[in-house]
Structures are given as C-alpha cells and as structure tokens.
## 1
Amino acid sequence: MEAEEFIEKLKELLGRNLLEYHIGRRNRVFVKVKNGYHRDVVSWFQEMQAHLSVISSVDLGDELELVYHFEIRPLEVGLKTSASKAKPHIETISDIYPSAAWYEREAMEMMGIVVVNHPDPRHLFLPDDYTEFPLRRY
Amino acid sequence: MDMVVQFGPQHLALAEPERFKVHTEGEKVVDVEVAVGYNHRGIEKLAERKTFEQDILLVERICGICSMSHPVAFTQAVEDIAGVDIPERANYLRMIIAELERIHSHLLWAGIAAEIIGIETLFMYIWKDREYVLDQLEIITGNRNHYAWNTIGGCRKDITEKHIPPLLTALEVVERRTEYYIDAFLRNRTIRARLVGTGILPREDARKLCTVGPTARASGYAVDVRKDDPHLAYDKVDFAEIVLGEGDNMARAKVRLLEILESVKIIRQAAKAIKGLPEGDIAVPVAEIPPGESVGRYEAPRGEVFHYVKSNGTFYPERVKVRAPTYSNIQAVPTMLMGDTLADVPISLASIDPCFCCTDR
Amino acid sequence: MFEKVVNYCRKKSPWLLHVSCGSCNNCDIEVLAALAPRFDVERFGGVLKPNPRHTDILVVTGIMTLKMTNVLKRLYEQTPDPKAVVAIGSCAITKGIFAETYASYGPADAVVPVDAYIPGCPPRPQAILHGVVTALNALWGG
C-alpha cells in the first residue's frame, strides 16, 4: 500500500479522530490519533499482519505521548496518541500484539504513562523501588 | 516434582547478566520468567544531553559486538531528518564494515554455541578464524570494535586501493573455513543430537510475537531489513535471504552460518563497486538538523535495530529511542523453551544470540 | 619460605571469575578472546571458572548498574582470600562515556577494592594479558 492510499483509508476509518499526519522521506509516515481510538487502528493493522517494532514514549511538555512503530510493507508507520500529564492514561494494545506488553512496561516506568488494563505492570529495567521517571524532561 | 532453577545473573553460559527462572516438572520445562535490567545504563537519557555527533559515539557503545549497527541506524534517522542523501561511496563503505561485522558476529555466536554444547575445540577453532576478520577491521578502521566509522553525512575514513587485496585474501580464508564449519554443524552427530528438534519456535508464534533476525527467518517468518526497507547499498548488490522452516536450534545455526557466505559475496561486490567511484567522496557536510522526526532501521547480525530520533532544531536531540533485536526476540524465549528438558535451556537461550546490553541499554 | 612457595603456586595458576556489571560486552568479548588460541591466557595458567568459591581473581567490567551492584558485592564476599580484583575497561575505571548517567553507583572501585586497572575501550587482549600478569607479579610475585 502506498502512503497516500494509507492516509485515505485511515481518514475513512477515523474521520475527525485523525488529528494530523505527515509523510516523510523513504516511506516513513507519522499519524496522530485521538486518545482512545488507537486500538481501532491497531486492530486494522493486525488484520494486515503489520509488524510491531517498538513503542516509544515522548515527553511533549503538557502531554505524554506514545508512538507505536509498525511496519506495513513498504511503509514505516508511527502511530501517535497522547494524554495529558495530569491524567496520562492510555489503553493497552497487548491483547492484540502480545509483544507490546514489554514495551508498555518500559513506557510506564521511564515516562510515567499509565497503561490501562496492562496484564503485568511491574518495572522492567529499573529496580522495583525506583520511584522517579528518568525520561521526563519538562 | 516441581522445581525452580535460577540462571544468573552471573553465569558462565552467557557473558552478560540477566536472570531466568525456569520452572520445571521433573526435567521438563513448564514456565520461564525472564528478568532484565541488570545492564541498564540510561543511554536514552544520556543521548539527550550530548550533541548529535557525540551521540554517534555513545550509541556505538550500546553494544560491543553489533557496534556498527547502532551508529548506522542512528545516522540514517538523523540524515533523514536533515533531508540529506549521503554519497554513494559512503553507502558502500558503511556496507562493507557492516558485513564484516556480521561475519565476525556470526562466527562469535557459532563459537559460543559450540562451547555451550560442550565442544570446546570447535570454539577455539572458530575464534581463531574470527581473528582474521578482526585483523581486517583493525587495518581499515583502526580498532577491533567500536570503529567510529560513521559521521552525520557519511563516513569518517575511506577504504583505499591498498586495503582491498588483503581484505579479499582474508575473505577467501574465512569462506573456506566457514564451509568446514557448516559441514561440522550439519553432519557431526553430537552437534546434531543437541541442536535438531530442540528449542522449536513455530512460524505463527514467531510472527505473532514479532521476532526479528535469524530467529524469525529460521522459523519461516521472512523479515530482513536489507530486503524489506533497502538502505545503504543493499538494493545494488545481489545476495540471498536465508529463510528456513524448522524453527529449531539447528535451523538458527544454519541461517547464521549460511549468512556468513552471503556476507562474503556482498563485500566482494561492494569492493568491486567502489573502484568506479571517486576516492575521498565519503561525506556531505550537514550544517544543522531542523526540527523533525524519523526512524532508522538496520539489519544487525541479530535482527532489526530500530532508532527513533526526534529533533527540536537545537544541537541536542529531543528524544532518542533505541530498540535492539534481542528486546523483541527474548519475548519468544518462553515459547521456545516450553516442553524441552532443563539441559537444553542454555543452548536454546544462546540460539537467539542474545545481546542483553543492547536490550537494557 | 612456605609463603614463597604458596605465592609462587598462586601466581602460576590464577583462576578467573568474570563479572559483567553493566558493560557493552566488548571488554567481556576481549576477555574471551584472550582465551582463544591467538592470545591464549591458558599458557599463564589462567582459566575462567563460574564459581566464586574457586576464584583467585575477580575480573570486573562495566559501570556498576543499579541492579548488578549488590550481586557484585555478594560475589566479592563469597570469594575466599587472598583475592584480587582487576577492573577492565574505561567503564569500570571511570564510567567512561557513561559518566553522567543516573543508572550507576559509580566506577568499580566505589563498590569493591580494586587492585589493578586495565584501561581501554576496549583494551586489546594483549593489554588484558599484560594487566593480569602485572597484577599477579605485584601481588604474589618476587
């Protein structure tokens, strides 16, 4: 699927819940969706047998963002969704993609995002008694 | 009788610290708990405090064995943000060092696998032959590992006419010895008894858990960033993607050994190609990195290395996210070990070629 | 006199325990490469053993991460006297390029007493052999 076709299909699926999109060089595409609607997109990706590479967490200042990196050949898609720092709740996708569980654990301990309905929200890399969020900047 | 056996964090089988709790019923494995984080060094946070150029040296030291993987993925992401195309010669130069690294990493793995099975002689033979590759890397780049070969915009040093003949001679020796090792692994009855039929990862599980690299390709799940997302000069050279179906330890060993031969082919073609390109044209100047974000992917010896870089227009990155292949592959380990005996656990663990320093960063 | 004989024997057969406490694994691979035929530490009597109770020399690499430091302390306490600790690589000596990280308790000598330092990133196998032999001579030789 080409980048423009992918964006059109995404617009059909989400309507106004697709907040922004950007098509970069070499088939890199970044899209931002409203919090709560990312699971629909991930389910659609699952039907297309997309490959989940990793989930990144970003500190935007007022908000905390999760970027889900999928490969849908030949595109490299970054699916973003964010929540406010006061209530950083984003729902899990580990029931759709089991390997997302570890990436979400890392986002929880490093950035302080609360992943709702996560099956195993323990610390992954940091010691169990570490209370700060190292990757927060603002 | 139920038992819990703990491997690590300090153990002889794997050089790096991680903890595995293996639950057994008798000799059969019924569950595996993996605890990581013993090697966590906070690299992503450090990367935000150093400039883009300094970060190349930082990400190089995420891992000592796949030391070229991280800088290439990182510089590709940054060059994408800056919107530059590096010279064709730089692509070939990066590719030659990358494939040399793949050869030495796969030989390293084969030696460690032989030692874990108990055949120390083969470990000694393989590591002796690995030294020929490291000699060439040292002659070309100046160091056996941590080559400092990349800069934003290309390479820092060139491969000249006088480097090529000793490189090709060394590759001939490596190719001949690798064929001997492939024969040893595939035909020796002791090695076959240990590797065939153990640590099976079915194709559907490999796909669902999004494994990468030789671990995925040995189970029939064909992912190879060199073919799927052509970068460097991989679309200009001819090589085969090795995909097998059995998904056991022997398949993973076979994929790696056959890939060494493919890497030799790639380096020979690249060495020929750079003869026609002007010497010295190895980098373009990149004055500043505008705000933006991009993704750099690279096929390391262990699988897909993924770098997400976000820039805010200053000299320092806003965010650097690194995902090494073992971070994905280790989640397939419980499936692989289920049902096998306790004695097969070390070799099955080693067969994904784990690099915990990469996973923990 | 007896002491001299014992020290001579200790010097000629050092059993090494290698502990990686948060390294990039390069120093660890160079320690293993020192075992390989080209550099061959076994001609000095050195072997790598997994059991701290059998150890003469603790070989330490890495930046002493948060989770691994207690493990290193326990291994150090389990190793019987007389023992030596050799810190290999820039990370174990000064934390190297990771000097400002939040995820470390300090270089190796902040955690265990170190007897010999082998600098480099990574130190070549020849440097590791030279360092181990120098440490042996300084501790139990002459």
## 2
Amino acid sequence: MIRELSFIDVLYLIAATRWTLALTAIAFVGGGLVGLTIALLRVSAVAPLRWLGTVYVLVVQGTPLLAWLFVFFFGLSIFGFTVSPWIAAAASYSIYAGAFLGEIWRGCLQAIPRTQWEAGASLGLGLAQQLRYIIVPQALRLAIPPTVGFLVQLIKNTSLAAVIGFIELTREGQLTTATTFRPFTVYLIVAAIYFALCFPLTQVARRLERRLHVAR
Amino acid sequence: MSLVELSDVVKRYGTHTVLNGVSLNVEKGEIIAIIGRSGSGKSTLLRCVNGLEPIQGGTVTFDGTVVNDPATDLRKLRQHVGIVFQSFNLFPHLSVEKNITLAPKVVKHVPTAEARQLAEAVLRKVGLAEKIDAYPDQLSGGQQQRVAIARSLAMQPVVMLFDEITSALDPELVGEVLKVLEEMARDGMTMMLVTHEIGFARKVANRVVFMHEGRIWEQGPAAATLAQPRTPELETFLSAVLH
C-alpha cells in the first residue's frame, strides 16, 4: 500500500535516530574500554602482551563488522545460545571500535617521546604515574581529532545493525521508502539527520583541540 | 664504602659493546667530569648509575644498594639520584611550578602549598624565581635547562648526574647553566658530569675520567690530567677539543 510522505514520517525518522545514538554510545563506551586495553597492550614492555594486541588489531581490522554482527547474532544461536540484538550489537561494535580506537590511541601514546617517560622515571615516578601525569595528558590532546573523526564514522556505521533487527535511522528510511515510494526525498532527509549529528561533533572537536592547545 | 661504585660494568647493545669493564668509585662530595669522544660510552656510563640502562655484567651500587639487582626498587633509588639530560626533557604540558612539584607531590606526598614553596626555593637557586608560572615553551634553552636542574633538586638528591647538559644550548646560554653547576659544587653536591666543556671541567671537577672505546682510558686529578695527559688518546682528544 503506497501512501503520501508526510510530516509524521519525518518524525518517525527522527525517533529512529535514538537507536542510532544508543548504538553509537554503546559502541563508543565498549570500544573505548577495549581500545584503551589494546593501546596499553601495544605499548607494553612485555613482548607477548604486545603481540596479543597486534594480533587482535590485525584480525579485527581485517574482518568486516557485518561478519561480527552475524557471528554473534545468528552464529551463536546455532549452538543454542539466544543472543539478544543488544548484546550482539554491543559485543560486535565494541570489538570493532576497540581495534580502531586502540590503534589511534597507541599512535598518540607513541608520539610522546621516549625521553618524557625517562624524565618521569628518573624523578622516581612509577610506570602508572608516568602514564597518568606525563604521557596521557599529552597524548590526549593529540588523540582528540582522530577520535572524534572515528566517532563520526561510528555514527554512520551503526546502520549495519539493521541486519540484526535494529530499526535505526537508515532502516527506518528503507521502511518509509517502501510505503511512500519516495526514495529521493526520504534518503535526503536521512542524510540530513546524519549530517546534523556529525557536523556539531567535528565543530566541538575543533574547538576542544584549540582550547587544549592554549591551556597545554 | 664509596657513595657510587661501579665495578667491571659491561653494557652491550646486541653485539656492540658500549661499556667494556668499567670500574669507578665516587666519594661523597666529589665532582667527576667524564670526557671522551661521542660513542665512547660516557653517557651510557652515567645512565647506568640510576638504572636507566640495564647492564650485562658487573655491578653498580649506590650507597650500598645494588642498582642492577632486579629486586632493587629503582623508584626509591631514583629519589636520591637526580639526572639532567642534554635535551632538558621538561614536561611541555605543565607549568614550571608543576614540572618541579610533580615528583615531590606524587612520589613523596608533599602537600601542595609546601610543594609550591619548595619550587620557589629551588627556582631561586637557579635564578628563575620569576618564571614559576611560565610554560617550558616560553623559556629559552638555558632557562629550560635551569628549570630541569631545579626540578631535579626539588627531590633533594644525594648525587646529581649531568648528561651533556650544555651541548644543546646556544653558546651564549652555556654560561648561565654552568654558573648554576658551580654554585651546586660550592654547596658540596656530589656530581658526575659528562661534558665537552674542558675549561669548566678543569675549574670545577676534582677528578677527570677519560673514556675511550668503552673503557676508562685515563683518570686523575682534573688540572694535572688535563695539563699533562699520559696517554696519546687523551692528548689527541684534548687537542681536537681545544683546537
């Protein structure tokens, strides 16, 4: 049944955006925790830990996010586990975002010269103290632009969760198109909503970067 | 027992031997200048004293504690052994005050107000009291190096190591840093300094140690050793440095 595209459809699209945001939040928090772990593993002084981090990044960056979603949602159910879409999405996105954030943050940590660690160590600071007071504050400033850049990618990549049943922004757009048959207008609106989410983020990142730079 | 004792220290990077059986004792209050060509192992020697460089043979002891013993708490040891680097290595994200007070606050748990006073005191020693709120990139090289010295002094070390601390400075800024060292020498600080400033070594050091090919090639009282080198290697080195 084809009906007219109306304002109520736009409201539905905006309402579906909350799932996009929820998925992004989960992916960012989960991915942040995994990413922090991976970044620390990758700069560890212990070789096997570094390898572990490297292998993780290689495997995850070399596999599609879609495959992880399928594995967790459909794959595990074959073995009798019923996985809710939320759990499957949280796991998949954390694994995926963790690899990329881990690499970004590792790069930022390693951009701080070795001599800064040494200066801290020479003053009697332990490894955790060197990280906390010397390395991380400097790395954080470097990390903001690429991290926000990745966050913007993440917002857009949440549309993949549609395959396991999430009716987020893109999926809602598909459904609206199916009933109204107005793909051009609908997807233009969808794109505008994505833009409205992403654009302010990049602006905030730029401002934050400037401010942190001034305040060191 | 000497304050710092190195005995038969061997340091290798892969197959390359940097220190090839170095033995050296440093008494309390002594000032030792370590000279030699680049690559002769003098910086490495210095960095072994506070355990920044793991060694492959021999022993390093500080005040009776074996530095290269894996059971030694290097953090505790380093509170007593200050080091100043060629490239300053100030923390660029922290003000001069925070650079100085970080370690006393975090490691020794000195309260903030007291730490600020401590920073003021050590900055006065290096003649930079008015720069307490500045950031490192607002300071000249000479000033940054003096802050680095102050930062080390704030931990009240028993011995200070100086690793070519004037080598990265413009010539006109060298004097202000050496002046600070002279004052520390007068205060009786035990110092080991790797330096290319032969004139300064002659004036301030009690003893000169000449490193060559990973060994202590020649050592002795500063003035005599520099005036009458006993080995041709030191003679060649001195004539090259002094033109």
